[in-house]
Write a structure and sequence with these properties.
By secondary structure, this protein is an alpha+beta fold. The protein has eleven helices and eight strands. The chain folds into two domains: about 220 residues, no CATH class; about 90 residues, no CATH class. It is about 60% helix and about 15% strand. Helix 1 runs antiparallel to helix 2, helix 2 packs antiparallel against helix 5 and helix 10 packs antiparallel against helix 11. It is elongated. The chain starts with 6 loop residues before the first helix and ends with a helix.
Length: about 375
């Protein structure tokens, strides 16, 4: 009786993981060197010390590099491991003895599933934590900081029947100008309106400080009562990040935080939600590329062919880059609304998963 786990399975797992770690380390070093060469002038112009760059910024960038580079790393590792076994006739010998390619695929699928599950957790909860440090550093020391989505004429629902309008909001000082907080009754008739020149977020009290507010109240007959104050502290459901949205907000949130954040924005009537929703769905979809690329790599590299590893590696890299490029190319369609955020995020994975299954089925077993 053939054992469930064979020595060959363990041998392939060890080689696959060793190759995966090796390629990832190479990707990390390559990215850091390339990025440093490109952005050294920005760092120096904005007085970032080398100590801060190499002890704060790049260590905080490594988790995101791992997340982005993981699919390519596991794909290249699978190509190299499978190709070497094919060239050394190990796969042919096993197939001659009655072992199908599908059985040989088992250790690769197990590793792919484990990495996919791990990267889902890593992408959803670890990377956002380090991205917060990375993004804050970029905003202070580089010109590549993520752009703000909304600056002026911001409308948010504070709670049912209560709407906040902000003329302009500055995310650095957490201060808004030309403020109007309007409250309506169940019949959609305004019952209170607070207008203020300025409001500032107070971290210590988690409240907003309104400067020179004028409070208008309206009774059932529409009669207005006007009161003015030097200042008012008020607690709102709206926080500074709900007003100062940037393109990278969701990247710096865990899956749980991003879900709550997007639900609030949707309820508050915020615009431009396609971009953050694409980023949100990508937290779920991107880890599957690790498994899909393994399913593509093994049948491609399992046959002996002229040119050996060089041909396999070249064709494999072409397929991997087409896959990853397709993901990036479809995202703008999700941002613009040409495709739904779900479609723009999941479509390339679905297409290449189907392609991987077709290639696997057509490969001789």
């Amino acid at each position: 009786m053939t054992p469930v786990i064979t020595t060959f399975d363990l041998y392939m797992v060890r080689r696959l993981l060793a190759g995966y770690v090796g390629v990832l380390l190479g990707v990390i070093v390559f990215f850091i060197v390339l990025h440093y060469v490109e952005y050294i002038d920005d760092f120096m112009d904005r007085n970032a010390t080398h100590w801060a760059v190499f002890t704060v910024y790049y260590p905080s960038s490594i988790p995101e590099i791992i997340q982005l580079g993981s699919p390519l790393a596991i794909f290249l590792s699978a190509i190299l491991v499978t190709g070497r076994s094919a060239q050394h006739l190990e796969i042919a010998s096993l197939q001659t003895s009655g072992v199908s390619l599908y059985r040989l695929l088992v250790p690769f699928v197990v590793v792919g599933l484990l990495i996919t599950v791990f990267m889902f957790w890593f992408n959803g909860w670890v990377v956002p934590e380090t991205n917060r440090v990375k993004i804050a550093f970029e905003q202070e020391f580089t010109k590549s900081a993520s752009g703000q989505i909304e600056y002026s004429n911001i409308h948010r629902q504070n709670r049912p029947g209560s709407v906040l309008i902000v003329g302009f909001f500055d995310r650095t000082s957490k201060t808004g100008t030309n403020i109007s907080l309007q409250t309506f009754n169940a019949h959609r008739r305004m019952i209170e309106r607070i207008d203020a020149k300025r409001m500032t977020w107070v971290d210590s009290t988690a409240s907003w400080y309104l400067v020179e507010p004028m409070v208008r109240t309206f009774d059932e007959t529409g009669t207005e009562t006007l009161s003015s104050f030097a200042s008012i502290d008020t607690v709102l459901a709206i926080r500074p990040r709900d007003l100062s949205r940037t393109e990278a907000d969701v990247d710096a949130m865990t899956i749980t935080e991003a879900h709550q954040y997007l639900e609030f924005l949707k309820l508050s009537g915020a615009d431009h939600l396609a971009l953050p929703y694409v980023s949100y769905y990508n937290k779920f979809a991107y880890p599957f590329s690790n498994l899909i690329l393994i399913l593509l790599a093994v049948p491609i590299a399992s046959r002996r062919q002229r040119g050996g590893q060089a041909i396999r590696l070249g064709s494999g890299l072409a397929i991997a880059f087409i896959y990853l490029a397709t993901m990036k190319l479809l995202q703008p369609f999700g941002y613009s609304g040409s495709l739904s955020p779900e479609m723009a995020t999941w479509l390339p994975h679905a297409v290449f998963a189907a392609g991987a299954i077709i290639v696997l089925v057509r490969t001789r077993t």
